[in-house]
């Protein structure tokens, strides 16, 4: 696989500059890609956990089902993300993961991560940065679920997705594809599907967000960020200053 085709390389390059050897090591993690259909289950809660996977293309989500049948979506995974990092120290899966769209995944065992740690300090730092960001995303999601209004929840989530997509695609320009159903959005935001629909209608009436099926347009990014009371500090994940200090 070439460097230009590697989503994980684009993702890691967002954090710091990489050497030729480090780029080759990352590209090797995307060997033997597997096509996978929308709706496919990658693993279930309680399954043995002995490997990660990189999401070369497509979207996925992690979730937990409650005893009453409700579902809470925990995290959205985008192209270039590593899925399963939180389970590195566990023998069983802590959550279920399912594809949102058709995509391509590349499995690699935990021991491959140890190779990364042995061969590259910068890549090790980036892995820790990615793990820290996953934790920050979950913390922010908890605050959203517990304390923000439906209008704030939706604005905050949309702006967050825009920023995350912009990290690997600088040409989003206030427009992006959001391949989530009404039910999936409801399970992310802790709302009912009807409430999600009403909230999007309200944001549209205010001229803040326009949605045409799975296509989202944000005319004024700063206005939407203000509505969501968005502070992007938890997405500020540039680790370059660490290497400048150690130089």
TrEMBL record:
- Does the entry feature the keyword Transcription regulation, yes or no? yes
Q: Which residues form the HTH crp-type domain?
A: 148-222
* One family name in Pfam for this protein: HTH_Crp_2
User: Does the entry feature the keyword Cytoplasm, yes or no?
Assistant: no
Family annotation (PROSITE patterns): HTH_CRP_2
**Which keywords label this protein?**
DNA-binding, Transcription, Transcription regulation
Q: Which PANTHER family match?
A: CRP FAMILY TRANSCRIPTIONAL REGULATORY PROTEIN, REGULATORY PROTEIN YEIL
Protein name as it appears in the record: Crp/Fnr family transcriptional regulator
Q: Which organism is it from?
A: Halomonas citrativorans
